[in-house]
Amino acid sequence: MKYFHFSFLMWTLVLTFFQYCLFSGSYRASAADTLAPTQFIRNGSTLVSSGQTFELGFFSPGESNKYYLGIWYKRLPDTVVWVGNRENPVIDSHAFLNISSTGNLFIFDGQNTTIWSTNSSRSAKNPIAQLLDSGNFVVKDEDTYEDTESYLWESFDFPSDTQLAGMKIGRNFKTGINRYLTARKGVNDLSPGDFTFGLGNDSLQFVVREGTKKRLRIGPWNGIKYSGRPSQIIPIFNQVSVYNAEEAYNRFEVTDKSIISRLTVNESGLVQRLVLYENTSEWTVMFTLQNDLCDDYAHCGPNGICKINQLPICECLEGFVPRLERMWQVLNWTGGCVRRTPLDCQERGGFLKIKNVKLPDLLQFKLDERMNLKDCRVECLKNCSCTAYANLNYNGSGCLMWFGNLIDIREYIEEQSEQGIYIRVPASEIRTGDSIWKSRRIVIIVASSMLFGLLALVLMCWYMIRKCRRKIKESQANKEDLELPLFDFVTIASATNNFSDSNKIGTGGFGLVYKGELFKGQEIAVKRLSRNSQQGVEQFMNEVAMISKLQHRNLVRLLGCCIKRDERMLIYEFMSNRSLNYFIFDETRRKLLTWPKRFEIIMGISRGLLYLHQDSRLRIIHRDLKASNVLLDNELNPKISDFGIAKMFGGDQVEAKTNRVIGTYGYMSPEYAIDGKFSVKSDVFSLGVLLLEIMSGKKNRGFNHPDHYHNLLGHAWLLWNDEKALELMDRCLEDSCVEAQVVRCIQVGLLCVQKHGEDRPTMSYVVRMLDNEEITSTLPPPKEPGFYVERSSADTSAVGLHMEPSTENAVTLTLEEGR
Questions:
Q1: pLDDT above 80 for 721
Q2: Taking phi first (over 0 means left), then psi (-120 to 50 degrees means alpha), and beta for anything else, what does residue 702 get?
Q3: I want to staple 249 with a disulfide (CB 3.0 to 4.6 A). Which of 8, 168, 236, 376 is the partner?
């Protein structure tokens, strides 16, 4: 009996000690990077990778009472890169993580109920879990040599919404693992959302899906880049894409150790590359995959091609016509195109080549990696159902053949490439093409003869031109007329730390923008023309000609330029508070702009635009007024920037027309977007959109409301007609607003965005209406806005030109950070 009591006492002491270790956390992994079967992680304790980069533990997002196992950057705890139990969060704070003796991970709640676990088919003698400095959480045998093949399980095989450096996105055909990103449902709801990003069923293309519906597609890898994507040489990255019998995946590596990068898909479905520079704590968006309407999947329907640099942006492929002509007339292209002349299998027919396009979706296709292009053509002709063929690889190898409709083709003009797609057409279409080519040859011959006649005259002038070439080149900056200061290249290079990445603050179609500091301590912004820019020289000259002659407190100040050989740079005053959209569209920063400050910004923008239209020596039409082109100085005073596509009016000129519409959808007036007509009233329309965005804190483009399918303009119009205009106001302004002033600004904004230009006020009247309280009672009622219908209830496809492809891809510059 004494022995029994002694044994019972010993077991009690052992169990008490074990429970103490289990629930007090005194025996746990909190400073190390590994977890053994005798250890556990519970709320309040963590693993930290050996290089102090990543941390693993339990956390609760925001004000949520749910707990998740996650991995985050140790110095940036709000940036969570992986979540284990996102589908089954713990609802109490007593959860803990443990690894079993066979090597499986388990999350238990306070009642020891299994909440989440891994299911490895292999086991280990001495299993441990380790958080690596790459952010990968792995399970392995402690006695096994360190290599990825020995991992029993790893978090990199089960991504959340983030791809880290070294992580593969794609398929392993041997193990059956499919790695893809899944967005969260909301900021504080980490459960899987509707949007995913990963390889398509063909294992060749990457796709963004909303549920089962495709929203964006990236064409197959051709050995250099993804089909249809502009080539982007980013020195700090190495992209690796693999397609073989065992695996198909993409991963990236960061070559610059001072930079951290990740790829994410957010709750709205946007796939973004984010970077974090050394000694900073704020992520910068390097690029977003969704850039414009042509990136929307199948935007132009079957057998249509999307061309973002023309209006309308959709047209049928050669040999095809709209299937529903009436729908195309109202800019609804979802019906696509059909053949003008049906294919006749008895005729041989032929192919028309289209270059610089994204290859069609691989819905019905055949791939033969052994074939060359010539054999591919022969094989396609043998099959009556074959509608197109192309090389898979840039070096000419690999044969892709399509059967059925050709879907989701878009044009790219940023670069020239011989690789293209060959569309099958009847023999009659080929003859038509030959006839056109013969006519063109005749025109070319005649034109060449005329040019030859002028050659003698050109040669006579050559000697004089040679003497003057240097002077002509220098005069490109209008030095003698504009009296614009010229900066030395060495001075600018020194001011920007030799144009280092750490000084980069923006990018666009023109090139890059750098922050610099002159030897006297003056901060500057340097806009450097990219040598590969097709439109940069024109924009450079236009901006020099425009802004150097303008002086107003609400226009950004051009300090000078720098010209050396093929270098072209513009030097501006530095704007420390970035751009207006950096504040008004951000949930936190928008609160810094109280109503009095927003009203000051509205008045400043209006006075700056009035100066351009009426008070300057030249009448200037800006053509791209938007939130990102309004910069803020250190006192949040607004300054209109970016005159790259501005136009100068002379004398009594009131309107002009262009065949090349460049600007930003969402801000463009109807007459400019559709007919290419622009005037001072075009800028007034853009100002009206901007006013309503400042009022509401919402973007016109992509605005959504549960009760209707209008954009922001339509929403404001509905509220105004229902006498509920104040409901448009940003809620964070409730404590600081002057209601009568807010209503007046909304009314002025609606007057500015009226459909017809003649109904819109002039800028002088706009300033009077905004600045004069007594005029409120005499203001006219606004009429219907232009471009206010955004989506139909039956389809989320665009109706009308209301979306906003960024002019970064044209000629204007949108800053990432401000200048």
A1: yes
A2: left
A3: 168
**pLDDT top residue among 790 and 332:** 332
Answer whether 524's CB lies under 8 Å from 572's CB: yes
DSSP element (H, E) containing 215: strand 213-218
Q: 595: how many CB neighbours lie within 10 A of its CB?
A: 21
Catalytic residue among 33, 295, 408, 624: 624
Strand order across the beta sheet in which 34-35 lies:
34-35, 127-131, 137-141, 153-154
Q: Starting from the edge strand earliest in sequence, which strands make up the sheet with 178-179, in order?
A: 178-179, 169-172, 247-254, 237-243
**Judgement on whether residues 670 and 805 belong to the same structural domain of the protein:** yes
What whole-number distance in Å separates Cα of residue 392 and Cα of residue 384?
Answer: 21
- Distances in whole angstroms, Cα of residue 42 to Cα of each of 33, 35, 103, 118: 15, 12, 18, 17
CATH number of the domain bearing residue 31: 2.90.10.10
Distance CA 422, CA 359 (A): 10
Q: What mean pLDDT is predicted for residues 398-420?
A: 82
Tokens 């959860």 found at: 95
Backbone angles phi, psi at 30, to 5 degrees: -125, -25
586, part of any domain = yes
The full DSSP string for 279-322 is T--S-EEEEES--SGGGSTTTT-TTEEE-TTSSSSEEEPTTEEE
Per-residue pLDDT of 304-324, as tens digits, reads: 999 988 888 899 999 999 998
Same domain, 666 and 747: yes
My answer on whether 343 and 450 are in the same domain is no
**624 in active site:** yes
- Please name which of 425, 360, 58, 332 lies closest in space to residue 202, comparing C-alpha atoms: 360
* pLDDT top residue among 238 and 685: 685
Q: Do 248 and 176 form a contact (C-beta atoms < 8 A)?
A: no
Tokens 């057409």 -> residue: 425
- Are 418 and 455 contained in the same domain? no
Calpha distance 305→325 (Å, rounded): 16
Give the 3-state secondary structure of residue 411. Answer: strand
CA 89 – CA 80 distance, rounded (Å): 15
State how many domains the chain has. Answer: 4
For residue 406, is pLDDT > 90? yes
Residue 490 forms part of a structural domain: no
Instruction: Give domain status of residue 41, yes or no.
Output: yes
* The pairing of beta strand 284-288 with beta strand 271-277: antiparallel
Final residue in a domain of this structure, among 425, 456, 488: 425
Evaluate if residue 798 carries a pLDDT over 70: no
The CATH number of residue 693's host domain is 1.10.510.10
- Asked whether residue 467 carries a pLDDT value surpassing 80, the answer given is no
Residue 483 confidence (pLDDT) above 70: no
In a domain, 514, yes or no: no
Q: Express each pLDDT in 215-238 by its tens digit.
A: 999 888 877 777 766 655 566 778
Same domain for 447 and 366: no
Question: pLDDT tens digits, residue range 86-106?
Answer: 999 998 888 999 999 889 999
What contacts 409, CB < 8 A, 6 or more positions away? 300, 304, 305, 306, 317, 354, 357, 358, 359, 360, 421
Let me know whether 390 and 441 are in one domain: no
Residues 319 and 442 in one domain: no
Q: Which domain holds residue 410?
A: 294-425
Calculate mean pLDDT across residues 728-757. Answer: 94
The number of residues making up the chain comes to 819
Cβ distance 277 to 259 under 8 Å?
yes
Residue 783: band (very low, low, confident or very high) from pLDDT cuts 50, 70, 90: very high
How buried is residue 711: exposed, middle or buried, by Cβ count under 10 Å (0-12/13-18/19+)?
Answer: buried
Asked if 678 and 751 sit in the same domain, the reply is yes
* Secondary structure of 464-525 as H, E, C letters: HHHHHHHHHHHHHHCHHHHCCCECCHHHHHHHCCCCCHHHEEEEECCEEEEEEECCCCCEEE
On the CB side of 187, how many CA atoms lie within 13 Å of its CA? Answer: 4
